[in-house]
């Protein structure tokens, strides 16, 4: 079992994320995503109708897995992860990552995670399963 207390309903430490243009460019280059809505502001506004560059859905999922890995702190492993993007998020917005333990049975737990904008709108929800070492 991990050295920290795991209980159903327990909260993971909150984390704030704020992407910048360099992070978006590098992330999209790494995943071979050429969609211009992540790096070309004039195209994004004029052709796609968005007010700002969009933060990738997969990047938001990666932020949530990062939050879980940091919480585990080497005392467990992420065994399953699924996420769903629900709302667009834009460059310059702060996304607040939060999570709770929804069930815990011995050496395994299920977590409910979300990313929420500062105005309270949820952009991404996820469920993670972890096994403690």
From TrEMBL:
It comes from the Bacteria. One of its GO terms (molecular function) is (3R)-hydroxyacyl-[acyl-carrier-protein] dehydratase activity. This is Acyl dehydratase. It comes from Vreelandella glaciei.
């Amino acid at each position: 079992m991990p050295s920290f207390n795991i209980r159903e309903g327990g909260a993971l430490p909150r984390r704030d994320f704020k992407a910048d243009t360099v992070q978006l460019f590098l992330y999209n280059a790494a995943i071979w995503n050429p969609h211009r809505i992540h790096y070309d502001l004039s195209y994004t506004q004029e052709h796609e109708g968005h007010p700002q560059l969009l933060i990738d859905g997969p990047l938001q999922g990666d932020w949530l897995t990062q939050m879980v890995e940091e919480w585990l702190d080497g005392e467990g492993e992420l065994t399953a992860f699924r996420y769903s993007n629900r709302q667009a998020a834009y460059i310059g917005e702060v996304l607040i990552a939060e999570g709770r333990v929804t069930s815990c049975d011995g050496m395994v737990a299920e977590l409910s995670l979300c990313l929420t904008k500062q105005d309270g709108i949820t952009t991404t929800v996820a469920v993670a399963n972890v096994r403690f070492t």
